[in-house]
């Protein structure tokens, strides 16, 4: 019985004492505070260990993120109750009359004796004394249940963290799929806009309108039949012979045939993918079949030519089909690389040039061939894009993508494309003329002005929104010395703005703005005192 009393005494003292500073808890400065790990620490110690919104438990070393003040943590109400009982006992006399009504010794955890006069004792009734031992047992049971609950809550938190990791990985995967689809969609849009522009430029009605309105200079006295022939052939000149016209027409036809073959191959690949049936079977970790939806097991395809709006289930099927075929293509590439590597290890070492067939890899479902060494690439006007990067005081403000048109072929464009090919060049530090929602003019720096301007004046003019053009600047003798990059905006063609437009030199069309029109419009709204600190770089790809 004595051993049990001593154990109860030690437990009571440790229960109302902070394990860190070894000071007794109180109701003001050293309030007993519960940590998420179920340990109790006084408020003063908590204020010292709460750093950078993180609490590290001194007892179990676990760290918890806590944004509020530590006073918001829950109090240990049982400790406060024990403190109040202790305070009541302190108000009693130092040597109470133990021979009177029954008293209970909190230190010994039993009925007070004569030797308990220096301990913490309280006055109780006889019935209370009988039930006090059951109360202590209840306290122990509650503590065990609390510990079990804290343990289960901690396990639940760990499981939720595993679920959170799964959803983060799933979100990253979906974002990657969306990025790949966006890149393919952007490439298709660039090719589509380019072909539509070429088709409109080669329209006989459009050419006849340009000839009759005099917008094509130097053709007033030509033979009507010759003018009609020249209007059919892209890039023709008055001095071209019939043989040259035929040769140019053959090259144009070959280019169009190549684009048609590429588009047909891509469309067939997509149709083949849509008509292919995909079946899904699920098994558990022991290989036992898991019952699923009948449509998954029997197989489905995504060929719905008459459906303009897809249901959520069909959208899921379409996404699953795309992912399955993406995995298949990636696996085929890995197998090819693995087989190529195995053959290379077995074969004798042979010097191979980059232009030999062994250094080429054919892409899936296309007729293109991609070289392994990107350094062998060359500037190709029909496939290139100008990239204008805008920064202010070193901070990136945006990029503008200009898809070059084949109709702007000239020595100037060829030289500019080669100099900037995969090598960003400093273009300008100045925003030239600008009228909000009318036009934006950016002058080229001296380093990019020492070019041959031959052939530029013969390029078609530009006046339409989402187009890009070049205007030339000449000296007093009429010699071209520099050039500007000009972007017509949404109100450029309105008659009420003709006075502003007349202040510009003739603008020669070079291509379509595929991305970044919002950046151009933002720059057009800058006032004079807001135009400092801008830098522009130009790159072709």
Automatic annotation (TrEMBL):
Pfam families attached to this UniProt entry: zf-RING_UBOX
Ranges where the RING-type domain occurs: 18-61
Alphabetized SUPFAM superfamilies for the sequence: RING/U-box (SSF57850)
SMART domains: RING
Assigned keywords, A-Z: Metal-binding, Zinc, Zinc-finger
UniProt GO MF annotations: zinc ion binding
PROSITE patterns associated with the record: ZF_RING_1, ZF_RING_2
InterPro entries given in the database record: Znf-RING_euk, Znf_RING, Znf_RING/FYVE/PHD, Znf_RING_CS
Protein name as catalogued: RING-type domain-containing protein
Organism: Daphnia sinensis
């Amino acid at each position: 019985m004595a051993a049990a009393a001593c154990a109860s005494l030690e437990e009571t003292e440790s229960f109302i004492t902070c394990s860190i500073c070894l000071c007794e808890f109180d109701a003001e400065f050293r309030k007993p505070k519960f940590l998420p790990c179920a340990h109790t620490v006084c408020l003063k110690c908590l204020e010292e260990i709460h750093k950078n919104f993180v609490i590290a438990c001194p007892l179990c070393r676990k760290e918890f993120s806590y944004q509020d003040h530590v006073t918001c943590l829950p109090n240990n109400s049982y400790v406060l109750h024990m403190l109040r009982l202790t305070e009541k006992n302190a108000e009693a006399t130092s040597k109470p009359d133990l021979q009177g009504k029954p008293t209970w010794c909190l230190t010994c955890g039993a009925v007070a004796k004569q030797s308990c006069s220096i301990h913490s004792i309280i006055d109780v009734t006889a019935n209370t004394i009988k039930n006090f031992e059951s109360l202590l047992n209840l306290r122990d049971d509650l503590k065990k249940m609390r510990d079990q609950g804290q343990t289960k809550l901690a396990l639940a938190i760990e499981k939720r963290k595993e679920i959170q990791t799964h959803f983060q990985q799933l979100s990253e995967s979906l974002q990657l799929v969306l990025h790949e689809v966006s890149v393919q969609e952007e490439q298709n849009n660039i090719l589509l806009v380019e072909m539509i522009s070429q088709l409109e430029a080669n329209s006989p009605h459009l050419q006849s309108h340009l000839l009759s309105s005099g917008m094509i200079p130097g053709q007033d006295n030509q033979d009507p039949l010759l003018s009609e022939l020249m209007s059919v052939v892209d890039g023709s000149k008055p001095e071209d012979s019939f043989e040259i016209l035929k040769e140019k027409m053959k090259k144009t036809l070959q280019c169009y045939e190549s684009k048609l073959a590429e588009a047909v191959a891509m469309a067939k690949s997509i149709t083949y993918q849509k008509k292919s049936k995909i079946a899904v079977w699920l098994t558990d970790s022991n290989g036992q079949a898991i019952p699923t939806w009948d449509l998954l097991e029997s197989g489905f395809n995504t060929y719905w030519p008459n459906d303009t709006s897809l249901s959520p289930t069909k959208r899921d099927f379409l996404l699953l089909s795309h992912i399955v075929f993406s995995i298949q293509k990636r696996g085929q590439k890995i197998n090819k690389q693995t087989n190529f590597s195995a053959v290379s290890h077995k074969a004798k070492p042979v010097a191979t040039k980059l232009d030999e067939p062994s250094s080429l890899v054919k892409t899936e479902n296309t007729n293109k061939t991609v070289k392994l060494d990107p350094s062998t690439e060359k500037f190709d006007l029909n496939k290139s894009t100008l990239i204008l990067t805008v920064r202010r005081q070193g901070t990136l403000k945006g990029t503008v993508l200009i898809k070059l048109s084949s109709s702007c072929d000239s020595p100037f464009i060829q030289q500019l494309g080669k100099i900037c090919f995969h090598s960003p060049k400093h273009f300008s530090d100045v925003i030239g003329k600008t009228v909000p929602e009318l036009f934006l003019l950016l002058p080229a720096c001296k380093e990019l002005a020492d070019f041959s301007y031959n052939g530029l004046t013969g390029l078609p003019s530009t006046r339409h929104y989402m187009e890009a053009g070049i205007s030339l600047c000449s000296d007093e003798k009429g010699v071209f010395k520099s050039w500007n990059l000009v972007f017509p905006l949404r109100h450029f063609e309105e008659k009420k703005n003709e006075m502003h437009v007349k202040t510009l030199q003739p603008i020669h069309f070079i291509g379509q703005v595929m991305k970044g029109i919002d950046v151009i419009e933002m720059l057009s709204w800058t006032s004079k005192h807001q135009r400092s600190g801008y830098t522009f770089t130009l790159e072709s790809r």
